[in-house]
Amino acid sequence: MIMKRFIPEIFRGLISDGISNAKKYLAEVETRFVKNEKSKIGTLLTKLVLMKYKNKGSIREYIMKMSNVVSKLRTLKFEISDDLLVHLALIFLSSHFGQFKVSYNCQKDKWSLNELISHCVQEEERLKQDKTESAHVATKDKKSDQTKDNKDATMTTNKK
Predict the structure, then answer these.
(1) Residue 5 main-chain phi, psi, to 5 deg
(2) Contact 44/72 with Cβ under 8 angstroms?
(3) pLDDT by residue (tens digit) across 104-128?
(4) Residues 59, 53 contacting (CB under 8 angstroms)
(5) From CA 17, how far away is CA 10, in angstroms rounded?
């Protein structure tokens, strides 16, 4: 008989007293506390489906996080193909990548995950350059508008 003084009270009522072997007892305890793989899969799938790139951080890190969730699902014997992962990553990209998504959909070839990362990083850099250029243009236009407004105000004052 297993010594009751070594068994926490919380476990004593769960297992029948007829178990005299420690290995059998531990096996019985283990069956009571088996991880529920279905709930873990559900949690990981929810995490994957709710991952949306919000233009914060690196696009490479975003796709790698998605890939990490998929690899955790695979360890639970829940298979998600690389093709599906590529499509999910594209779907969850922000609207800034709209032209990029259309470009991918018009191609006959499918990209691997590494190709997707490479192309996304290039597109991210292009978008950053466009944003910087448009910011410079906006700044120049703003100054010229202010100068024009000041000239109009001066002319109006002079006419009075």
Answers:
(1) -70, -20
(2) yes
(3) 989 889 999 999 999 999 998 888 8
(4) yes
(5) 14
